Amino acid sequence: MYIHAGNNLVLSSKDVIGIFDMDNTTVSPRGRDFLPDAQKNGRLVNSTDELPVSFIVTGKENGRRVYLSSLSPKVLGSRAKKKNIAL
After folding, report:
1. What count of other Cβ atoms lies within 10 Å of the Cβ of residue 58?
2. Can you give the pTM of this predicted structure?
3. For the segment 19-33, what is each residue's pLDDT rounded down to a tens digit?
């Protein structure tokens, strides 16, 4: 199954590790370091031209990726639940 994460981004549901709210996760020091670290290591994919509201962490055989999305975690979560994905 797949999740449409906005702006022509479609992710395989089996690869999704988690969907996170940008505002809530960047409050802690560890959360603030996560996205810059992903960008530094070439794992960050900006899939929106708008201000990102959430990010999706995926784990694939060739490594972990972090996708920025303009859709809220609530919307992405409801799309995942419609596809019977346990998050």
Report:
1. 19
2. 0.84
3. 999 999 988 899 899
